[in-house]
Amino acid sequence: MMNTTEILKSIMQDPELNSQALLFNSADAAAKSIPILTPQSVAKTESKQADKSHQIKISTQDAHVYYGESEAIKGIDLDIYENEVIAFIGPSGCGKSTFLRMLNRMNDSIEGCRMTGKVLLDNQNIYDPTLDVVMLRAQVGMVFQKPNPFPKSIFENVAYGPKLHGLARDRYDLEEIVENSLRKAGLWAEVKDRLNQPGTSLSGGQQQRLCIARTIAVSPEVILMDEPCSALDPIATAKVEELISELAQQYTIAIVTHSMQQAARVSNRTAYFHLGHLIEVNATEKVFSQPDHELTEAYITGRFG
């Protein structure tokens, strides 16, 4: 069985490496015992040095999320720093997408879902009942797993948000916002001569970048991405990953991914979730090469997935 250092090397050097093959690395790995999750074993580990050198953009404090009586997120404390890319990884059903959606209250629309604790954006609790949720979702945008362009033209897809929020003074201003957003999304050169065509006429990868441009157009501070490449081919995935690195210069980005290779390629830090707990968060290279928690090591070495 590969050790964690070898796994990191393969992740970084081979973009085509199949993540499912990694999760089931060998029969020997599957046969080994998986650590038992106890309250004592769930102590989150994180580099102490990072706290002093980064400004906190989002902070969750004793965050719990419930679907009816079922607890999906179990008392998570996490700081997300300004202009970083943080990846959330873990087995299916571990709570990473629920946690991501909690960061801009997307879970509010789910019947029976409730949240306790605090989520602070620039030190303001986003669950304050007086807070404008529409404005929150402009500040903290979301890019979903499946590209979801509006049934409108390419231009109107990007212009919709600025119109809704009154961000454009006139038509010229609106056109400038649309062009700048498409440029930032790496799409302008491909669509500048067909802005009146339907957004749905684009390829899957182009549609996802259109959705990213739509998010950028309302001037967010944070961009949440829920498996943004899972429906894309390798070429389109590479373009989106390159875009993420460029966007991180201006935005704070949190990305949920099932691909450990992708987490290694795009993120500064990686957070590992397990059964609703945040097990470990640290610099991505350290998480993959020298994890502090045995559950993290068991996951990245393929002992369970």
What keyword list fits this structure?
37% helix, 305 residues, globular, Rossmann fold, alpha/beta
How many distinct domains?
1
Residues in β-strands, percent:
15-25%
Q: Pick out the low-confidence regions.
A: 1-5, 7-34, 47-52
How far apart the termini lie comes to 16 Å
Large-scale geometry: globular
Question: How would you explain this protein's 3D organization?
Answer:
With 305 residues, this protein is of the alpha/beta class. The protein has one domain (4-21, 55-300): Rossmann fold. The protein has helices at residues 4-13, 19-23, 27-31, 50-53, 96-102, 133-139, 154-164, 171-184, 188-191, 204-216, 234-247, 260-266, 284-289, 294-300; strands at residues 56-67, 70-81, 85-89, 113-121, 124-125, 140-143, 222-226, 252-256, 269-274, 277-283. The strands form 2 sheets. The protein has a 6-stranded mixed sheet with strand order 6-7-8-3-9-10, sandwiched between helices. A 4-stranded antiparallel sheet has the order 2-1-4-5, covered by helices on one side. Strand 4 (113-121) and strand 5 (124-125) form a beta hairpin. Helix 7 (154-164) packs parallel to helix 10 (204-216). The radius of gyration is 20 Å and the shape is globular.
